[in-house]
Amino acid sequence: DAGVIQSPRHEVTEMGQEVTLRCKPISGHNSLFWYRQTMMRGLELLIYFNNNVPIDDSGMPEDRFSAKMPNASFSTLKIQPSEPRDSAVYFCASSRLADTQYFGPGTRLTVL
Amino acid sequence: RKEVEQDPGPFNVPEGATVAFNCTYSNSASQSFFWYRQDCRKEPKLLMSVYSSGNEDGRFTAQLNRASQYISLLIRDSKLSDSATYLCVVGHNTDKLIFGTGTRLQVFP
What we know:
- The complex is a heterodimer of chains A (112) and B (109).
- Chain A has 112 residues and is mostly beta strands.
- Chain A is built from no helices and eleven strands.
- Chain A has strands spanning 5-7, 10-13, 19-24, 31-38, 42-50, 53-56, 65-71, 74-79, 88-95, 102-103, 107-111.
- By secondary structure, chain B is mostly beta strands.
- Chain B contains no helices and eleven strands.
- In chain B, strand 6 (55-57) and strand 7 (60-65) form a beta hairpin.
- Chain B is globular.
């Protein structure tokens, strides 16, 4: 079975540009999570969805970040405008309700 | 104070050694507990769940002390392939998981 799929795997952009990260969860999973990982702060939950509905977005840093889940097989995390402090690895994870979370390979974002 | 606290390490141990990691959590309402493993430049993966009665999976033993809000992971007979970062993870009564910043283990020959 395919795991969680994320694209792109690497993204290098300049400050002020819009960045869109994409995630395809495991088929049949109804919860989807976006995390950010940095050396300083570790792994932080940004937002999660149950059945395509955002449940908790308290981890979203500020209005520059937005996430959508238009259907059960696709989600996006958008940063507009991007800033150098957004440089991090962004992980998407999915699970069946309250079960083990499976992580995608991550998107390594560098904002210059 | 962070909700889940771990010693960042690194723990440098020889092959065959026994090593133990500890973790404390601050929210007494936490209901689920896990250890995840993360290899360098890879995604976190579930190593094992942690139950109140303690549980063992081969060379790995996890313990939970709810009264002290303390979780441990013991690795016996360490292998080179055990070198990774071990993340202590705590869940509430929702899907939300809180990750510790991880303890790095390096096993040397």
